[in-house]
Design a protein that fits this description.
- This protein is α/β, with parallel strands linked by helices.
- The protein folds into 2 domains: 245 residues, TIM Barrel (Alpha-Beta Barrel); 138 residues, Beta Barrel (Lyase, Ornithine Decarboxylase, Chain A, domain 1), CATH 2.40.37.
- It is 35% helix and 20% strand.
- It contains 15 helices and 17 strands.
- Strands 2, 3, 4, 5, 6, 7 and 8 form a 7-stranded parallel sheet that branches. The chain has a 6-stranded antiparallel β-barrel with strand order 9-12-15-14-13-16.
- Helix 9 crosses helix 10.
- The longest helix has 17 residues.
- The chain is elongated, with a radius of gyration of 25 Å.
- The structure holds pyridoxal-5'-phosphate (PLP).
């Protein structure tokens, strides 16, 4: 018993936690699929699942969905796919952008598919050779319809479809099959007439041109991937066989403006629930006397006696150091302790942040709990202050906010143990 008690205490003293509402994740994906016309999903879990924890989410998806509902999961790089395989994830994985010959040759991972975006990609894959071609389960050609980042230019494919046709044949000869085509929206959150419809048109034209030169025994590749989260709610592309939702599947919108706009157009999106919550335990509450400075550089000097709480989370966990505050500076983001917002003060350090807890209505109770070793949580990314608010306050988008949370935070299912 003594050992179990000690283990329990150790867990309680752990640092910051990302709690994952996996039920919300599944429900969000199902809602998006329904909105998109029951098209299969290929959830995007690159960048550690936008900070949520790719292994936990991938294993959850495997247990929750069928291959018919969810034919693949998507990552950006081959190295991310390898990590998932090493962690025991078996689901087919699609690598959206980055892989090398060396990675493919060295890989023992099965069922990894790739998007090919250029002639260089094609030549590199060809040079892998027939003996090792089995390390790639299949490919899709990525067509640049207006994002102008990666992909074969849609205009060039429309004009010279025979080049792509011959590349597809050459890969086929070494056993690498082309399953379909993809593109990516540049302005998916906006009114579809602004640009997304034009991208859809260019993509369709390129496919039409390719079909017109399609000869040979192999059938025309049927799979089409076009939409990201926002794209799927606009239902842009006829015949899309699967879509790639990222940000909305995590119950998060790009920013507050985009949330307002998309909710006004598609009220059903109000059913999306955030998957991630971030919180950290308070390590101590102590009194800082009037005139005393707080944290590195004494950026904050107390104007009166103030109780200060020290929270176990810092810039090495993903709290921006730019949120450091002097007494007369505006407070952008707060921690929420028992539902009450408290301001950051002084310099945000690598592992800890200080907050002014003086006017918290339950100060005495919180002090007692912390002194007794009970865990008192300070919530950071939470219902009072969701990712879109962080994004707006920090002049960025929710994607960056979510990706900022580092490996050091413990990820665990809501209500679960570490
Ligand atoms: C190629 C590709 N597809 C899909 C997505 C998912 O986009 P979103 O998170 O906006 O749904 C991304 C995200 O960056 C992407 O790069």
């Amino acid at each position: 018993m003594a050992f179990r008690g000690a283990a329990y205490k150790l867990r309680e003293m752990q640092g910051p936690v990302i709690e994952l509402d996996l039920g919300a994740y599944a429900a969000n994906l199902r809602l998006l699929s329904t909105l998109g016309g029951a098209i299969p999903l290929m959830p995007v879990i690159k960048a550690n699942a936008y900070g949520h924890g790719a292994v936990i989410l991938a294993k959850f998806l495997e247990s929750e969905f069928t291959l018919a509902d969810m034919p693949k999961i998507c990552v950006a790089r081959w190295s991310e796919a390898e990590k998932l395989r090493l962690a025991g994830v078996k689901w087919p994985i699609l690598v959206l952008s980055q892989f090398s010959k060396e990675e493919i040759l060295a890989s023992s991972a099965k069922e990894i598919f790739c998007y090919l975006s250029s002639e260089q990609d094609f030549r590199m894959l060809l040079s892998v050779g027939a003996a090792k071609s089995k390390n790639v389960a299949g490919v899709y050609w990525h067509i640049n319809s207006g994002m102008n980042r990666l992909g074969l230019n849609s205009g060039a494919v429309s004009e010279r479809p025979d080049s792509l046709r011959s590349w597809i044949q050459e890969l086929g000869q070494i056993g690498i099959k082309t399953f379909g085509f993809s593109s990516h929206l540049a302005r998916g959150e906006e009114e579809q007439e602004i640009f997304s419809s034009e991208q859809s048109r260019r993509f369709q034209l390129a496919l039409h041109a390719l079909r017109s030169v399609w000869e040979g025994e192999d059938p025309f590749p049927q799979e089409l991937h076009f939409s990201n989260s926002a794209g799927v709610v606009w239902k842009l592309l006829k015949g899309e066989t699967a879509f790639r939702p990222g940000i909305l599947s995590y119950g998060t919108f790009q920013d507050l403006d985009s949330k307002k706009y998309l909710l006004s157009k598609f009220p059903a999106l109000s059913g999306l629930k955030p998957v991630m919550q971030v919180r950290a335990p308070i390590r101590s509450i102590h009194l800082v006397k009037k005139g005393e400075g707080v944290s590195y550089g004494h950026r904050f000097v107390a104007d009166k006696d103030r109780h200060v709480a020290c929270i176990s989370i810092g810039y090495a966990d993903g709290i921006r150091r730019s949120l450091s505050r002097k007494i007369d500076e505006a407070s952008k983001l707060k921690f929420y302790v028992d539902g009450v917002g408290v301001d950051i003060i002084g310099t945000v350090t690598m592992d800890m942040v200080l907050v002014d807890i003086q006017s918290h209505p339950k100060l005495a109770e919180l002090q007692k709990k912390v002194a007794e070793g009970q865990t008192v949580w300070a919530n950071w990314l939470c219902k009072e202050q969701p990712a879109e608010v962080h994004a707006t306050e920090l002049g960025t988008i929710s994607y960056e906010i979510l990706c900022d949370f580092t490996e050091r935070l413990t990820r665990r299912p809501l209500g679960g143990d570490a």
